[in-house]
Amino acid sequence: MTEIVGRDTELATLAAFLAGAGGALVVRGDTGVGKSALVDKAAAATGGRVLRSVGTEAESGIAYAGLHQILYPLLAHADGLDDGTRAAFDTIFGRGSAEPPSVLALGVAVLDLLALAAGPAPLLIVVDDAHWFDAQSVALGTFIARRLSGHNVHLLAAVRAEVASGWDVAGLPALPVPPLAAAAASVLLARTAPDLGEAARTEILREAQGNPLALVELPRAAGSADGGLAGRLFGARIAALSPPVRASLLRAALDGAGRFRYRLSGVAEAFESGLVTADPGSGDVVFRHPLVRSALLRSATPDERRAAHLELAELHEQDAERYARHLAAATVDPSEEVAEALEVAAHVASERGGAASAVAMLTRAAELSPEAPERSRRLAEAAFVAAQAALLDEALELAEVQSPAAVLASVYSAFYRDGDVRAAHRRVAAALAGAVEPDTRERLLDLLVAISLYSQDAELWRVTEGLFDQAGPLSEIYRDTMGDVVRTGQGAVERVRAAFARVGAGRPWDVMRLGVSAYFVDTLAEHRAIVERVATRELHGGAVTNAMTLLQLVMLDQMDAGEWDDALATGRRGLELTIEHEYALFEHQFYGYIGLVHAWRGDFEAAGRAADRLDRWARPRGVGYLTAVAEAIGTAAGLTSGDYETAYAYASGLSSPGTFTPYSHQSVRTFLDLIEAAVHTGRVPQARAHALAAVAAGLPALSERLDFLVAAALAMTDSPGASFEAAVARPAAGRFPFELARVRLAQGMWLRRQRAHTAARAALSLADAEFERLGAGPWAARARVELRAGGPGAALTAQEREVALLAAGGLSNKEIGAKLFLSPRTVGAHLYRVFPKLGISSRASLRDALS
């Protein structure tokens, strides 16, 4: 190993890092600046086990290829893990058939494996050229890196400063490696080339610009005609190799793996050339520097590269993605066999969270398709997957002009980025009116349903429904649940459940749409584990467009489940993602859901900002779904603050009492809100009419949540035969804690009016505790007022009743005091205790309360 010169500061930093507790450090610098030498020096000095891996551009598109390198030597330790933890990454390495795990689940499993492998001795993971790791491995690597404290494991990741990667934005500690200072560069050149003439020495120092690799190799490469840095440094040595060794090294370079997967021809010659070396930890043969790989690829002829790829395809025949990539690289003329292999590999990649990789494979499959129809179909597939991966510009480029696939790609862009509902609906409907290939037709239908959902326009929905003469079962589920769910959603719970059982966690676009359907029939909690797992899986290099909606679903279920802090965290995460990709539609949707939580918690300023922002963006564009969310925020804020007239104005605008606005999901979501607002404003007949209309429309059969809420609404409106106890005993009541707490609050108020103080206090205590847990301060305060007015000690004392009767008669505190020989202050204190006992807040209510 060449002596390291001028790096005392960097070496001291590395030594201190390795001497400390477990953690991660990113070593960042330009090509050839000496990152690998520094990391190797650090690895040689550590007293424990060293695991090495190398990122390569050839494998940067293969999901989990980098993680496989790191963990493959440790798989023997997996037998020491419990079944659930081991299964989390078994599927990644082809050792099981379970669904791919999320980043969280896989990350925890990997941490357990590393801890088991390390034992009492330190474990160092070295990742050279980490910027070439695939997106999934980067996501896992950075997840693990942030959680190594407390483990006897260190991770060193060397990345090129000029190549952007996920390591740059992971927030990990970094060690920058700059070019050598002039004095150190001069010393290094003198040590490596002591016989160099002064003129050549000056020229090399000028050209190297402090780059250690250039300082070491340029003297040896004098006279090379290759203009590239890799060629100038290693071109002459590659040219001097015997043909078998050169061919063998070329295959290693094209394979992209960190270690050679087959027996290297002419090991001695390869070592003598200085192009390969032995890994200090494992003894495996590895390239001396990543630039050796670049130089080998530049030196090979196209025929030599194709022959090498063909041999590598045979080597990786059991690995769908590697097999297809090498086979495609070896193929020049159109070949249906190769195109089919690429298409299979693309489907495998999509189901492993590698949608971005799938786009490249489908594009190449289209290029190699001999027949025009297959070429068009595969290009359409590539454009569709690109849109799901938030690569909207690429999707537009892939789609053939004027083709249905082009309509898909362009409408995705206009719809998600600009919220152009009517134009998007018109274009998709027009495309469906013509002859369309079946798969593309299904996708256009599904997109039309999504556009219609956001429009909440009955006329657009009628057009959409008129195009469903040739729809598949999944599309029919989406139509029936995302459309006029009150009238078409009966039996959808079972259909969604059966569809999830068929789809599993496979294609993310199917999981996403089924998740939306599940939310609209209130069964999202059943499927949240799959939704959350696929959302996490697709965030990095996967179907990012779908991940945005999946995160919305996770947030909505967290809201329903009373996990409001987690819901806000998910909402902020989704906002960052949508803003990054400029998806204005989803960005404002996240603002709306965040605003709802703020409204229920009583942060009226934040809720008002969210509603205003949402309404100003959505209403001019005709995005009715989002304007309805803005009005739902107004309803929630009114109920929370006690401004029931405002709440009623908003709620009755979403759904007139006694009716359910067609195609409006908020008219169903705000069912309880309208009932409460109507009751509190004295509009009990309207409230009762709305509860009875829900029964007539079959809402209790639509979902268990609505069964619970309709039963509660009947009790709140004093409908014959209804009871609060029957409502709160419904199966779904406990799954919706905020709504249950509101029903218990109403129950407690009703019981107090019936003088059932003990039962009232029990109901109100439960409501108060739940509101407090949720952080719904105004609701908790309201429950506590009711608690003070009911239960033991709530009856008025003789003097309190006498004071209350006189006050109800219109006397002032001073006049009451004169009659009862009390000071006005004492009269005021009595009234202060009387008001909460009677459940009122002013003198005006005394007469009715006392009667």
From TrEMBL:
Q: Does the keyword rRNA-binding apply?
A: no
Q: Which organism encodes this protein?
A: Paractinoplanes ferrugineus
Q: Which CDD domains does this entry report, sorted A to Z?
A: LuxR_C_like (cd06170)
| Gene3D superfamilies to which the protein is assigned, alphabetical | Winged helix-like DNA-binding domain superfamily/Winged helix DNA-binding domain
List the SMART domains: HTH_LUXR
A Pfam family recorded for this sequence: GerE
Q: What is this protein called?
A: LuxR family transcriptional regulator
Task: Look up the domain of life of the source.
Answer: Bacteria
Q: Name one GO biological process term.
A: regulation of DNA-templated transcription
Q: Keywords, A to Z?
A: ATP-binding, Nucleotide-binding
Q: Which SUPFAM superfamilies match?
A: C-terminal effector domain of the bipartite response regulators, P-loop containing nucleoside triphosphate hydrolases
Q: Which residues form the HTH luxR-type domain?
A: 789-851
* Molecular functions per Gene Ontology: adenylate cyclase activity; ATP binding; DNA binding
PANTHER family recorded for this chain? TESTICULAR SOLUBLE ADENYLYL CYCLASE, TRANSCRIPTIONAL ACTIVATOR DOMAIN
Q: Which GO terms describe its cellular component?
A: cytoplasm
The answer, when asked if rRNA processing is one of the entry's keywords, is: no
